[in-house]
Amino acid sequence: MVSISKRLKSLGVNLGSDTAPPAKRKGGYSIDKVVKGQLEETEFGEAFVVDEQFPVGEKHGDFGIDFPSQIDRLAIWAKDSSLVDKEREAFLFIDTETTGLAGGSGTFAFMIGTGRFHEDYFWQRQFFLRDPIEEPAMLAALERFAAPADSLVSFNGKSFDIPLLTTRFLTNAAPSPFGGMAHLDLLHMARRLWREVLVSRTLGNLEEAMLGVKRSSEDIAGWLIPEMYTDYLRSGDARALKGVFYHNALDIRSMVTLLGVIAGKLEQPYDKGAPHGEMFAIARLFADLGYPEDAIDLYSRLLELTPHKEIKSRLIQNLAWLHRQREDFDTALPLWELAADEGEVYAYIEIAKYYEHQSGDFHSAIRYSKKAMKIVGSKRASRFERVHWQPQLEHRLGRLESKQDNKKKKK
Predict the structure, then answer these.
(1) What are the residues facing 45 on neighbouring strands?
(2) pTM for this structure?
(3) Between 20 and 30 A from 66 (CA), which of 258, 264, 287, 367?
(4) Using one digit for the tens of pLDDT, what is the confidence trace for 171-212?
C-alpha cells in the first residue's frame, strides 16, 4: 500500500508527515481513554482495534447469537448454492461507519465493524482510524482478521460498504480481499419480507420490531456520525465516539440475529402469530424461487386466516395464477369465480380464456368478456381499468365472436 496523505490533504485533513503518529490535539481525550482497545502491529504501522467475544447462544434482544442451522433457501435467493455447505466460521459480518454517504474516493471508513464465529463464541472486532494516516494499517489488520472467511453478511453492504472498502483498498494500491466473496445482503431480503408490514426497514426499525433489541440512550443517530468524527479530528476529543462504537457494535450483532430470523422464516414460514403481510411476501418469494408447492400451501393457509378483503383478493389472484401455471384449471377456475363475484375484471378475463382455450365454449367466453366490459364501462371503474382493460376486451370480443360465427358455419 502507498501513502494516501496527499489525497487526504486535498480533502482538508491535516496529516502532518507520512510517518507521524496520530496527532495530539488539545482535547486530551484520546480514543484509548474512551473505549478499551488495543494496538495491532502491521507492516504499515499500528491499527487500533476493539475486541469483544460473546458465547454462542448469548441473548441479543429476543434471540441468541448463533448461525442458522439451514440457509438453503437464502442461498438460492442469493444465487449461490455454495453457501449451503459452508461452516459458520466462513462468514464475515461487516458494517462501516464513514465520513459521508456519497461514496467515491473522497469518502473513507473511519470505523469498520466486523464479526465472525470462532470455536464456541462470536468474535466481534472493530477497527478504528485514530488518524487518517493510519488507513493502510487499518486495512491490513482488517484483511488479516477477514482471512479465514470467504463469505460476507451485511446490511446494504452490496451497495455501500463493500464498494467503499474496495475503493479504499485500491486507493492504497492493494487488491480488495472481498472480491469474489459470496455475499448475503440482509437489507434486500428485509425489504421483500416486511415491505407491507413495516413503514421503514432500517436495521434500527427491524431491531425493535423483529428482534426485540432496545438500544440505550448511549446510541447515536446514524446521520450524526460523520460530523462527530470530523469534530474528533479537529479537537482530539474522542468522548463522543463512545456512542459510535456502541452503535456499530449493535449493528453487527443485530445482523447475526437477523440472519437467523430470516433463515428461520424461510424454512418454517407458517406462523399464525406472524403478520399476514409477511407470510404473503414469503409465499411470493417461494413462487419466484421455484417452490410452487410451498407457495400454494402458504397462500392456502393464509387465505383461511386473513379477514382482510384486499389481502384475500390478492391471495386468490396469486393462488389461481400458480394453479394456472401448473395447468390445474380444475382448482384455478373456482378461485377465479370467487374473484369474479367480487367484481375483479382480471378474473372474468381468465374465465373467458379458460372457456376459449380449454373447453372451446365460445358462448361462455363471450358472456364473461361482456361482463368484464360492463364493469370496465361502469362509473365505479378506475381510469386504469378503462385504459388497461377496455382495448384488450374489445379485441377479445371481436375474436371470440368471429370464432363463434365460424363454428356455427361449420355446423
Answers:
(1) 42
(2) 0.86
(3) 287
(4) 999 999 999 899 999 999 999 999 989 999 999 999 999 999
